[in-house]
Fold this protein.
Amino acid sequence: MFLLRPPGVYRPQGDTSMLAEAVEQIGIRPGARVLDVGTGTGAIAVLAARTAVARVTAVDISLRAVLAARLNVWIHGLRQVRVLRGDLFTPVEGEVFDVILANPPYVIGKPGHPGKHSRDRAWDAGPDGRRVLDQICAQAPGHLAERGTLLIVQSALSGVQLTLSRLRESGMEPGVVASRPEPFGPVMRARAALLEARGLIAPGQRHEELVVIRADRTDAVVPLRA
């Protein structure tokens, strides 16, 4: 699929393709309301709109990503896709969706937040890799319609069991639907020494396990929390 990617916008990689495969497997029904959180180039939003003729909303905090996604949506002639700028669910406050898709930052880094104009903002997720994951686990259930589904991709280094637990706490029924090893890219190779020092990877290890988690809404979903 042809996509334009200006400098500073996250390049679709192995995690993107894993999420795309999961989207195709769940079989989004025509006309479904779909939210793509952290859309980047808009790759997943375009896929969802093309394969399911779904009504898609794509959100990203990066202005460059929003402009790239809008351009890619226009190139593919997808009038049913809207692209909004904002932090996670803020631009869609009060709205609910049948499907929420997320490929959030999950790379383990140093304390503190990347600068507003730093490229690291697209992948850096703090010392435990959960800066954004935990927000999604807390807020996504409140934006799902009854029997709605969340698909989220992350690294096993960022705590798969913790994600499953947080989603259960929010009244969801989660489970891992896909996993596979992924060779380190430039970002992870640059942080390999840090990960080794913290005992998160074995000496010389240069791959991580990526997983896709599916969580379905139940009647027990709790109210939104910050």
Notes: Residues 24 and 51 are 8 Å apart (CA to CA). The longest helix spans residues 14-26.
